[in-house]
Amino acid sequence: MSESLLRVAFIGAGKAGTTLAHGLRRAGYPVVAIASRTEASAERLAAIIPGAEAFGAQAAADAADLVFVTVPDDAIAAVTAGIAWRPAQAVAHVSGALDLVPLDAARDAGASVGSLHPVQTLLGTASDSLEGVTFGIEAEGWLREQLLAMADRLGGTGIDVPASARALYHAAAVMSCGYVTALLHDAAALWVRAGLDADVAVAALGRMAEATAANVRAVGLYSALTGPIARGDAATVLAHLDAIDRAAPDISESYVANGRRMAVLAGKSDKTDPSTWQALFARAQEE
């Protein structure tokens, strides 16, 4: 089955390249070549991908039908420009924020260009799962069809994300990942300042965040809202604000900003009057 699939190479052996290489290999794609900024990194990844060999960037590109340039965003254009591409092959990056302009050198040489961005936080391990992941795709013609099919074979779903949508699309992904991590950091810090164990905080609050995300997927954003703002419990929120101001004033801004947004969402679901909460938060910040 793999003989009918595109031969794939990776230039870049970081988290994204490692996860995608493992996923594509499991999906039946022949991953034939790995290149990286350092020879050791390429050899390390090639050693754990059956059938892959470590090469320099040009040799890796020459060996494949589809080359993923999985280097940091600001290096994609330079890496692409340093390779002699051929018209029959395809080149793709995995950046969520960038359009296809950094691949112009490959396009100018006649290669097809595109992007395949997994909407998923990646650790760069063999155990990273791409099952159920949405992939943002920008490409045209046969490469678009190949990337959509690739997302499907990985167990995910491909969606078209044109250049005009990239910034907002990626901002949303960052908010759903890095921003959630920052919020959990602040939440765990409150437990620690209350005298509770940091490891217990991460385990307990992380589990709650997982359950919340599952509820959002199951019943929708508005129905999943819980907590004192959704219940209209102003006394509890005021107690929170007082305690945070005394023990963790650096986290007050985060609590208030997120509280205001939650009040807006709760108001849209008719669970509470958002203007009441906005006034409460404004008074709290003035005191």
Report on the architecture of this protein:
With 287 residues, the protein is an alpha/beta fold. It is 53% helix and 12% strand. The protein has helices at 15-26, 39-46, 57-62, 76-81, 104-108, 141-153, 166-193, 198-219, 228-231, 234-247, 249-268, 274-286, and strands at 8-11, 31-35, 53-54, 66-69, 90-93, 112-118, 134-138, 157-160. An 8-stranded mixed beta sheet has the order 3-2-1-4-5-6-7-8. Strand 5, helix 5 and strand 6 form a beta-alpha-beta unit. It starts with 7 loop residues before the first strand and ends with a helix. The mean pLDDT is 93.
What is the fold's blueprint, element by element?
Layout: E1 8-11, H1 15-26, E2 31-35, H2 39-46, E3 53-54, H3 57-62, E4 66-69, H4 76-81, E5 90-93, H5 104-108, E6 112-118, E7 134-138, H6 141-153, E8 157-160, H7 166-193, H8 198-219, H9 228-231, H10 234-247, H11 249-268, H12 274-286
Helix pairs in contact: 7-8, 10-11, 11-12
